[in-house]
Structures are given as structure tokens and as C-alpha cells.
Amino acid sequence: MDRTKQLKAFDDTKTGVKGLVDAAAGGVVDIPNMFIRPPDEVAEDLELGRTSLQVPAIDLRGIDGLRRGDIVKEIKDASEKWGFFHVVNHGIPVKVMEDMLNGVREFHEQDVEVKKDYYSRDPERMVKFNTNYDLYMSKAANWRDTLIIDMLHNYHLDPQDLPLVCREATIEYLNHVMKFVETLFELLSEALGLEPNHLKRLECNKAKTVAGHYYPPCPKPEQSLGINKHTDASFVTLLLQDEIGGLQVLHQNQWANVDPIPGALVVNIGDLLQIISNDKFKSVIHRAYGNATRTRTSVACFFHGVATPPKTYGPIEKLITKESPRLYREFTVKDYMMKFYSRGLDEKSGLNYVRI
């Protein structure tokens, strides 16, 4: 069977990667060819080293007091050097985070006939489930399924559209995340040397997409990836991950593990913030490995700014100087996202679309 037919047959089951695992008596021993990474990609990967350095963890306790200046400096350093950092004491209750992860897990593990109703590749559908948004474009499919809540063009989410099994947990989590992200954008504004409300005025937190990823056990994780190396088409991404681990970031040409910290959220700088900060903050390549024996669950919230009606973004004027001339042209989020979704996740950064 040629690759396209194989992909189509897999897609038509509407059961995702978990369906493959469930259908295999005694577990999947071999993974289908469409999930196996190309040899050149594996070879290129082997040339990159591994580092024991850890992504910075920033304690937000005392944010409204004397520690604020120190916290802003830590965020500035992490955003410039890593593009990733953990935050602890962020104000989102541990139970709310646990319920969100459990809700995503329960959605993916519920009766397949109920789940099939949500299976879709329709870009207009706000709440859907599928496997690999770029299934037909990527060089190798990734070993994961995703529940997607797409609020890129429509900012109002009707709770009734959410799957019952995770409805309450999702609404509660999003309510807390929206409060926290306002604080985060204040800190990022200050870290750029701007007024605290600068990024808020640009409405960087307006449109968002939530991706509830589910990575079933992968019998040969060295042959496949949970998610290909990529940068995010967002201003920032907030990641909630369970205790399994598997996330890695590329730091100084070496892969660094982003080991889970209980109660922490992972913040990563996206392409759009790198652009408007005129390269002061970095959007870095990251990926996720599968686990041979355990299921991994994570929830990513991508904040895209204003997509509808089209709003123009570009490098912030105050950050352009004789020493730091403008590096990017203006763009709309809608155009940027259309280009992002028109290619495979394993291709080059979208920053080149708008680089001068």
C-alpha cells in the first residue's frame, strides 16, 4: 500500500493512534511505516548532542512585592537565552491542573464511538479530535492524538460544544489560565523594558487554541516522535504536562530535557513574540518523545493575538534602535497562521515569512 493510501486508511478509522494500540492484540509490537522517521532526520539528530542543563524554573511568589524586579529579570534572561521556562506559584490550583489533565486523558480513553463524533479535519470546527493536523503533509506521522479547541477566529466558546467528559475541567482551567496569562504578559512587557500593559494593549492574549495531547505507549520510541521538532506560531504557549516527561528543547545546539516539576507550568516564547520583540526574545525549536510503556498527557494553550478582524503586528517601535534595526516586516496573524497550517510541522521556522 502506498503512503497516501496508508494514511487515508488510518485516518478513516477515526480512532487515532490509540485505536492502533487498542486494535493490536497484546499491544503494538511494530509501528506502521508511516510513523517511522526518515533516516536523514535520524542521522541529523544524532549529530546534535545532549545536555544536562535544565530549563530555568521561576518562582512567582512575591510578584506584587519586593521580588517583582528579580522575577522580571529572571524572565528576561530565560526568554533571551532559552525561550522556555517553568513557573511555580503561578496561582492556578494544583487540583484544577490535575482535573484538566485527567479530563483530556478521559476524553481520549472513552468509548470510541462517542469519541468518533468529534473526529474532524474541518478548519471551521471549533472543537474536534484528530491525529496529526499535518498528517498528509509530514514526512513521518507523530505518535499522538489531540483534542483541539480552536478559538482563533471565534473568541466565544460555548461550554455545550465541549465533550461532556472534560467540559467542567476545561472551563475551570481556562478561566484560571486567562487570569494568569494577563500577569504573564505584564511581566514579559516589563522584561522588554516596556510599560506593564504594552502587550495587553496589543491584545496578544485574544485568540487562543487549546491542544489536549495524548501520547499512547510507543513500542519503539527511538523510531518515531510524539511531536516533531518545531517552533510555535504563537506569542506565548503555556504547557501543562503530566509527570511522564518527554519534552525537549534545543539549547545551544543540544537537546535539553524539560523534566516535569510538580505544580509547574511551562512557558515558551512563540514566533510572534520573537518578531515583535525584534529578536530580543527567542522562539526555540522543541519536540516530544514517546514513552515505551506509559501514556503521556499534556495540554498546550497557544495565544495568537488578534486574527479576526485582521490586525497588523510588527516589531515594537520602542525596541528598534540604530544598534537593533528592524528585522521583520509587518504581518497579520491570519496570514501567518494560514502559512503555518499549510506545511508540515517538521519544516523550517515560519519566521522566514516575515524576516526582512
Write a structural description:
This protein has one domain: Jelly Rolls, CATH 2.60.120.330. Helices cover 30% and strands 20% of the residues. The protein is built from 10 helices and 15 strands. A hairpin with a 2-residue loop joins strand 9 (247-251) and strand 10. The protein is globular and about 60 Å long. The N and C termini lie far apart (44 Å).
The first-to-last residue Cα distance is 44 Å
Element-by-element helix/strand order: HHHEEHEHHEEHHEEEEEEHEEEEH
- Please tell me what the overall shape is: globular
The CATH superfamily name is B-lactam Antibiotic, Isopenicillin N Synthase, Chain
- Which percent bin holds the helix content? 25-40%
The CATH architecture:
Sandwich
Count of domains: 1
CATH topology: Jelly Rolls
Mean pLDDT, all residues: 94
Percent of residues in beta strands:
15-25%
Write out the strand line-up for the largest beta sheet, numbering strands in chain order.
Answer: 2-3-11-8-13-6-5-4
Structural class: alpha+beta
- Annotation, overall tally of beta strands: 15
Q: What Rg do the Cα atoms give?
A: 20 Å
- The number of distinct helices, counting runs of at least 4 residues, comes to 10
